[in-house]
Every structure is written in C-alpha cells, then in structure tokens.
Amino acid sequence: MFDVLLETADRTYEAVFYENELTEILVDAMPFTIDLRDFMGQEKVGSIPIKLPSLKAQQVGTVEKGHLYLWANTDLVLFYKTFDTTYSYVNIGYFKNAKEVDALVSATEITVILRKNFNLNR
C-alpha cells in the first residue's frame, strides 16, 4: 500500500493506493496535478498527465464513496456516491476517511495535486 496526499487549494486529504503496476507508476511520477470536473452528479473525473500502460479493467459491480479508479487508462475517477454500475475500472485506492469526500462535492471543477505522503511511506 502507498500513502498518498491529495491537495486542493484549501485542504489536504489522505488516501491509500493499492500496490500494483499502475499505482507504482503513478506514485513514482508524483507530484502531479489533475483538474477534476463533476460528472453525472456522482463522481469527479480528470485526465492523468502520465502515459500509462494498457491495463485490463474489471467490472466492479458497486463503486464505493471515496474510492479512486482508473477509467479508460487515462482518467482518474473519484466517486462521492456509492451505487451499482456495469462499467469497468481499474481500482487504484481509496480515501482514508470517505466522509471527507463530501467537501469536494459542491465544486464543479477542482484542481488536485497528488503527492507521496513521506510521513507514512517507508
């Protein structure tokens, strides 16, 4: 597991990334910035500024509030609602405190800087 910080203009959030090929590439490339925009009243989506290998997405069935996924090998998706879906994603990780995601819901667009949490990573 990788401990990651997601920083906005006024707040820092803690997240955990699972250890896999994708997250190792993302963590090695940190810090980087993603502009997230609201999509369908249930998620924030933004293009990852890094070329990623093609990874096989899987149907997740239910997405959970506060979870982070990769969509179409190009977009980071942060879900702020829990619901059933037929879409396929690559699971990246989750917010340590899913309730904190509520603070991001009201903004139509938000800029996030992803950084390694050196205080927790070894």
Layout of secondary structure:
Blueprint lengths: L1 E6 L4 E6 L3 H9 L2 E8 L3 E5 L10 E2 L2 E2 L3 E5 L3 E5 L3 E2 L3 E8 L6 H4 L3 E8 L6
Antiparallel strand pairs: 1-2, 1-11, 2-10, 3-4, 3-11, 4-8, 5-10, 6-9, 7-8, 7-10
Explain this structure to me?
An 8-stranded antiparallel β-barrel has the order 1-2-10-7-8-4-3-11. The mean pLDDT is 91. Helix content is 11%, strand content 47%. The longest helix has 9 residues, at 21-29. The radius of gyration is 13 Å and the shape is globular. With 122 residues, it is mainly beta. It has 2 helices and 11 strands.
Task: Considering the chains and any ligands shown, give keywords for the structure.
two-stranded antiparallel ribbon, globular, single chain, mainly beta, Cyclophilin, 2 helices, eight-stranded antiparallel barrel, 122 residues
